[in-house]
Design brief:
The complex is a heterodimer. Chain A contains eleven helices and two strands, in the order H-H-H-H-H-H-H-H-E-H-E-H-H. Chain A is mainly alpha-helical. In chain A, helix 1 runs parallel beside helix 8 and helix 3 crosses helix 4. The longest helix of chain A is centred in the last third of the chain and has 42 residues. Chain B folds into two domains: 165 residues, no CATH class; 151 residues, no CATH class. Chain B is built from 18 helices and no strands. Classes of the chains: A mainly alpha, B mainly alpha.
């Protein structure tokens, strides 16, 4: 039950990108293609899982007064390790993500989870929380990247070889040939507008679900009153 | 309670309603459209037509989504004005989808997502222009050469082919047709090391003078009909004139004489039709004078020091941002209360 709750919190109700609006800098800067979004999302997920676990394990050792610097050092360790790994094994991806890989350190979503959850919970829930929030963040990054890539260039899944190796270079799908590049979608203002649309979509789905829930509740209450009134 | 019968004084009397105002504005744009048609061919008519059709469709769609009275808001013509302003500020000869993207963005994103008529922070037409300029720099900066002694305006069929994107496959044809605008030429030549008076002999200013004159005529009509007040146009042109004179006084070999800037690019349409948008401009007379002067100064600075040849869209959008602040500091004092 607790894990299910953590999952819905991370993926939907408390989604770092759509609800907390944290980590907007990489979110807006890097999502010009779906693959870039996926790569940065996976990197963030790895870091989140690692830092959450570590923070949870060390939560009794760290004095509360200095917990934030300690968290930052832990996060920076994981990010540095990840950056060096990417540099060694995914050089193309390293070039295309650039500074934003190192900037994961300053992503508020990560320190937010460390402070709000990992420092108060046991190791396994903390790890699970990190993974779920990471996946929630990744989904938004991929959606945003896909939207912008499609609108901006008329293609999708370009540069998949950066993440999945050479065999993926043929994955790129051109949906509209002879498409005049819509540069605006690829530039930061396009990212802001696309994110705004995603937020609107989420709020719309939430309000629909709430409506349905209240209607269902009304029906059950009215049926119970009916059944209770008939014997009388 | 009935709010409509006895509102507190003062009662301002306005002749006509929004709808009639907007029709007058459309009428005042006619001279400009005629001049555009004369020099650049029928492309401007297609631009206006598609922009209006898309704007109306987008407006209807948004009104339906927002559950607003459709007939009332559709017939107020405000979407048509936005569409017409986009259409006449785009280069003649752009493909149809570019016009459609601009009109759709102006109505859906800039106007309705900010709350609809009366609520939008930014001038919809200029925000759409800025979007298109950023997104499609090549199409947005290639104006065709104006009709003149060497060159006739493209025929109706040619314009239509360009508009539908049938002729655009031949890059050379476009190159032969397009020409640098006077502001472009001046900027390029000065950057190449020529003096401004030398550059002035290279450029063909005539068509643009006529065009600005036509917008000026339309603008004066609006002033006479009291659709717009003089504060914004006059302060904008005056602001521009002052900085232009200052620059001309300091560096006469780097910049052209002030009248050149007043009668080239989109100066006049900006002064009378764009900057005077009642929704996004400042409200009090003092505020409007500051707002207009700001646009004039920014417009000149962008033209002379900036990267783009013309800067109407950016100048207007930047001043739109300052409107809340201007309004805050230029509130008219309520009678009987001390000045705050």
């Amino acid at each position: 039950m607790q894990y299910k709750n953590i999952a819905t919190q991370g993926l939907w109700q408390n989604n770092p990108a759509l609800v907390q609006l944290l980590g907007l800098c990489p979110l807006l800067a890097i999502t010009n293609t779906a693959i870039n979004g996926l790569a940065l999302g996976l990197a963030t997920t790895l870091v989140l899982a690692g830092t959450n676990t570590t923070v949870s394990l060390t939560r009794r050792m760290i004095a509360p007064e200095i917990r934030l610097p300690a968290f930052v050092i832990i996060i920076a360790c994981f990010v540095t390790a990840l950056e060096l790994t990417t540099h060694a094994f995914f050089y193309g991806l390293y070039l295309s993500l650039g500074i934003f890989l190192a900037l994961i350190t300053t992503n508020c979503a990560i320190i937010g989870r460390a402070e709000a959850f990992a420092s108060k919970n046991a190791c396994l829930p903390a790890f699970f929380d990190g993974v779920m929030h990471g996946i929630g963040f990744t989904i938004v990054l991929v959606l945003l990247g896909g939207m912008r890539e499609l609108l901006g260039t008329g293609k999708i899944l370009t540069d998949a070889n950066l993440l999945f190796g050479e065999r993926a270079s043929s994955w790129s799908i051109t949906l509209f040939s002879n498409y005049p590049d819509f540069l605006f979608a690829l530039l930061p203002p396009g990212a802001f507008i696309a994110l705004g649309l995603l937020l609107a979509l989420k709020n719309w789905i939430d309000s629909k679900m709430q409506q349905r829930a209240s209607v269902a509740k009304q029906q059950t209450t009215s049926s119970t009153t009916n059944t209770s009134s008939t014997p009388a | 309670m009935n709010y409509t019968t006895h509102s507190p004084t003062p009662h301002t009397h306005t002749p006509g309603n929004v709808n009639q105002f907007m029709r007058q504005v459309l009428l005042a744009m006619l001279p400009g459209v005629v001049v555009l048609h004369y020099f650049f061919g029928a492309g401007v008519l297609f631009n206006v037509f598609v922009a209006m059709a898309v704007a109306l469709a987008a407006e209807a769609w948004m009104l339906r989504l927002r559950k607003k009275p459709m007939r009332l808001f559709l017939s107020d013509c405000s979407a048509l004005i936005t569409a017409a302003l986009i259409a006449v500020s785009l280069p003649v000869g752009v493909p149809w989808w570019l016009v459609a993207v601009g009109a759709f963005f102006a109505i859906v994103i800039v106007k309705h997502l900010y709350g609809g008529l009366g609520q939008n922070v930014f001038n919809p037409a200029m925000a759409a222009y800025a979007l298109l300029l950023v997104a499609f720099p090549m199409q947005m900066t290639s104006w065709p050469a104006p009709a003149g002694e060497f060159h006739a305006a493209p025929s109706f069929v040619e314009s239509l082919r360009l508009f539908l994107g049938l002729a655009s496959s031949d890059i050379n044809a476009i190159d032969a047709m397009s020409a640098a605008t006077p502001l472009d030429t001046l900027k390029i030549e000065v950057n190449l090391g020529y003096t401004a008076p030398e550059a002035m002999t290279q450029l063909h200013w005539g068509a643009w003078q006529w065009l600005n004159l036509a917008w000026l005529v339309g603008g004066v009509y609006l002033l006479l009909k009291r659709i717009i007040r003089w504060y914004i146009p006059v302060s904008m042109l005056a602001g521009m004139l002052v900085v232009a004179s200052l620059f001309y006084f300091i560096a006469p070999d780097r910049v052209a004489a002030p009248p050149f800037y007043l009668f080239s690019g989109a100066t006049m349409i900006c002064a009378f039709f764009i900057a005077t948008d009642p929704v996004t401009a400042a409200t009090s007379p003092k505020g409007q004078i500051i707002y207009g002067a700001g646009i004039g100064i920014l417009l000149y600075l962008i033209r002379v020091l900036g990267g783009y040849p013309d800067g109407v869209a950016f100048a207007v959008l930047l001043m739109n941002l300052t409107v809340p602040t201007i309004d805050y500091y230029t509130k008219t004092r309520v009678y009987g209360h001390p000045a705050s």
